[in-house]
Amino acid sequence: MRAIKSVLVVAGSLKRGDPERPEEQVLMRSLRDFNIPKIVTDDVPVFMGLIGDLFPALDVPRKPRLSKPGGVLLQVVQLEELLTVRHSVFVVGNAGTGKSQVMKSLYKTYQLMKRRPVWADLNPKAVTNDELFGIINPATREWKDGLFSSIMRELANITHDGPKWMVLDGDIDPMWIESLNTVMDDNKVLTLASNERIPLNPTMRLVFEISHLRTATPATVSRAGESSRIQCH
């Protein structure tokens, strides 16, 4: 249901941007453009064959760009399309496959467009869970802020409408990612042990730069993994 809802969101966005386009073309393009970024190269022909069976003789061009997208450029386009409709995105690929280059290229594009992008990154496995999200001192009851909670609060307090990314660079560990479930789902709120609630506002995105999803729990996958993944290879 979550995937269907996401495709409908994409379709609605496309229809609003091009209201004269026939509905079957809007649906075909939303199914294609939403799912292609998540599929490994070997499976693309199979997927496109299924699309061809559903929409015979229908070929809708991608959103016009300065040049024909391919390679890194295609992945930049795919990342931008996913970030438009999803607030949590996994950029997946082994070391050396261009994950960082794809993200930096899109970020630089935003800068050239004068959109004032903000990028804050951290390795969640470089610190403890308490250092990441904060902790209440059991003796004094004083609250000590965490690295992630501090970054999220700072980005939430930026008033301009440019894109704001929190990039978590490091493979998923259930020990820390479970604390982000309410941020990644439709609540879009980080709830701290201090009872503070920090909202993920409409300009903010969680971007996970990872090599695989093998250690992701079903809860994590259902919230973001299967509906917002771009595969670098």
Automatic annotation (TrEMBL):
It holds the Pfam family AAA_6. One of its GO terms (molecular function) is ATP hydrolysis activity. Gene3D superfamilies: 1.10.8.710, P-loop containing nucleotide triphosphate hydrolases. Residues 1-63 form the Dynein heavy chain hydrolytic ATP-binding dynein motor region domain. Residues 89-223 form the ATPase dynein-related AAA domain. GO terms for biological process: microtubule-based movement. InterPro entries: AAA_6, ATPase_dyneun-rel_AAA, DHC, Dynein_AAA1S, P-loop_NTPase. Signal peptide: none annotated. SUPFAM superfamilies: P-loop containing nucleoside triphosphate hydrolases. Transmembrane segments: none annotated. GO terms for cellular component: dynein complex. This is Dynein heavy chain hydrolytic ATP-binding dynein motor region domain-containing protein. It comes from Amazona collaria.
